[in-house]
Specification:
Elements: H1 8-27, H2 37-55, H3 85-94, H4 100-130, H5 133-144, H6 147-152, H7 159-178, H8 182-196, H9 204-219, H10 221-224, H11 229-244, H12 253-265, E1 272-275, E2 278-281, H13 289-296, H14 300-321, H15 328-331, H16 337-358, H17 374-392, H18 397-417, H19 447-457, E3 462-467, H20 472-477, H21 481-484, E4 487-489, E5 498-501, E6 521-529, E7 532-540
Parallel strand pairs: 3-4, 3-5
Antiparallel strand pairs: 1-2, 5-7, 6-7
Length: 542
């Protein structure tokens, strides 16, 4: 799998990825904790307890970690996949990790490690598509230098984990389609099952691959000499692996799978999104919600390249549909397996996005539920870059690489400047007043550093409360013990020494009385992004 052994190219590639890994491990502790992480941790222990009840029932009462953990039947969120939460729960129990900061940090390290692995597979996808390790490096840098993706790679154990597994699934899917044998069928079956077991939306890729496989059998000469046996093996193994990796499905695989799928399509919780200056229910979002979020939170350079690649794919498709005469112009771009790969990437982006829009699916917290389509978005962007290279830089490829690096510099600079708050990245399309239009730190990651600041510079025993959607109890649990012991989190804002506001679910006009800061509190400290506060600490004054 590792390319270019015993070569300078291999050394450069190794140095690139090794540097990313080291930097990532160094900065993991810099990031805060999201408001969902305690719930996902419990989700893992629910499944772990369930496994022990089946195989080691005598040990359940002896394991302190299972205290206050509900049974599988009592747990209301069985539909949450456990392919990340279950192994991390096991590691927490096996290594007897008791301190809250340590077991959440352990989860963050593993979160980033999985993202790092997927980054390498993304490099392989690009290298195989364009037969260029240099473009592979550049394309993987596109994924890495995506501020929101980069920040959430350390703590988002739902959407980023799913995206990471989806990238690896894409790689194994293409291998399976290009070389339809038993080995590739088994590998794709395992990896796609893991993706499905984190988010049931992962079923999309096997369905797409199945459709392409059937078409290839009838239309592609190379497939005519192959039997359908590898496909049948995949169809048999995938449901088995999905069930095996997800304990909730063990009692009733088909029934529980359908239940989870229905819960996905019938999600009835009302979550209000601050979108274009108004609060809009997650049940009644405008059709353009995901598109706008993609375009305002992605570096503009990638968006321009995507438009070029997207237009080209449409033109290429129309040429084939209307049987427009083949030309040298098109021959330079698309041949054989490359065409198939481009179609997979294109459909992996457009079909989920189109489905979410047409089905009016529930979305909230920006477009994080659709992060899994972002690698395909970037693959279309890289196609756009490839086209630009052929049209304008055929004799000066190095110049295009230099220009690309220069165009990445503003984003890199922004990420360094605003570390560790890359999760609040907006490009200029959002406008300078983006805080009056969109959610900022919706998961409350900045609360940890806000509490740390209070612990460092506050006086005596300190009571802290929060307004907006601020789970300060969880944020406090993520502090080191020396800071944790200085603070008490209370719910009564009028009797607290400090109030933290992370602006989540805070109306523009500050109408909600529960979110209104009392007049005897003054600004003590602010965390800002591009001059806009994403977290404000208020101190009580006499």
């Amino acid at each position: 799998m590792l390319p270019y052994l015993n070569s300078k190219k291999y050394l450069l590639i190794s140095a690139y990825f090794f540097t990313i890994l080291i930097i990532g491990f160094i900065i993991v502790p810099d990031y805060g904790i999201s408001i969902d992480e305690d719930n996902t941790r419990i989700n893992g222990f629910v499944s772990l307890k369930y496994i022990f009840e089946i195989f080691f029932p005598n040990l359940v009462s002896e394991i302190d970690k299972f205290t206050n953990i509900p049974s599988m039947t009592e747990w209301e969120e069985q539909g949450i996949g456990v392919i990340f939460d279950l192994p991390t729960a096991f590691l927490e129990w096996f290594f007897k990790i008791e301190d809250s900061r340590n077991y959440f940090l352990m989860r963050h390290f593993i979160n980033f490690l999985l993202f790092f692995v997927s980054l390498y597979f993304f490099f392989l996808l690009i290298k195989n598509r364009y037969n260029s390790w240099i473009l592979g490096i550049l394309g993987s840098a596109f994924l890495l230098i995506s501020p929101r993706i980069f920040a959430q790679s350390f703590y988002n154990n739902k959407d980023i984990v799913f995206m990471s597994l989806f990238i690896i699934s894409l790689y194994t899917a293409i291998n399976f389609l290009e070389k339809p044998n038993f080995r590739n069928a088994i590998i794709f079956s395992i990896i796609s099952s893991l993706a499905i077991d984190i988010r049931i939306l992962g079923v999309f890729l096997p369905i797409l691959v199945f459709s392409i496989y059937i078409i290839n059998i009838y239309w592609v000469e190379n497939y005519k000499n192959n039997t359908i046996k590898p496909l049948l093996l995949f169809l048999i193994l995938t449901p088995l692996f999905i069930t095996f990796f997800w304990p909730y499905l063990w009692q009733d695989p088909l029934g529980n799978f359908i239940t989870v799928f229905k819960s996905l399509s019938n999600f009835d919780e009302y979550i209000y999104n601050f979108y274009l200056g108004q609060y809009v229910s997650s049940q009644n979002l405008p059709w353009h919600y995901p598109i706008v979020w993609i375009f305002i939170s992605t570096p503009l350079f990638y968006i321009i390249l995507f438009i070029v690649g997207f237009v080209f794919i449409i033109l290429r498709f129309m040429r084939k549909v209307f049987k427009i005469e083949e030309s040298d112009y098109y021959n330079n771009f698309w041949k054989g397996k490359n065409e198939l790969q481009d179609l997979i990437f294109f459909f992996s982006f457009i079909i989920p996005l189109f489905s979410v829009i047409t089905l009016n699916s529930t979305l909230y917290d920006g477009w994080r539920h659709l992060y899994f389509i972002y690698p395909s978005f970037l693959m279309v962007s890289l196609l756009g870059l490839h086209i630009i290279k052929i049209l304008f830089f055929k004799k000066n490829k190095n110049l295009l690489l230099i220009l690309s690096f220069l165009l990445l510099l503003p984003t890199i600079t922004w990420m360094f400047k605003h570390h560790p708050y890359q999760n609040v990245y907006f490009n200029f399309l959002a406008g300078k007043d983006f805080n009056n239009k969109f959610e900022l730190d919706y998961w409350g990651l900045s609360n940890v550093n806000a509490l740390k600041y209070i612990a460092e510079y506050g006086d005596g025993d300190i009571n802290v409360s929060g307004v907006g959607l601020s789970d300060l109890h969880l944020s406090k649990a993520f502090l080191s013990i020396k800071y944790r012991n200085k603070l008490s989190v209370i719910d009564d804002i009028k009797n607290s020494h400090y109030i933290i506001n992370n602006y989540r679910n805070l109306t523009v006009n500050n109408i909600n009385q529960n979110f209104r800061i009392p007049t005897n509190y003054k600004i003590f400290y602010e965390i800002k992004i591009d001059g806009v506060p994403i977290n404000t600490i208020y101190k009580k004054v006499k």
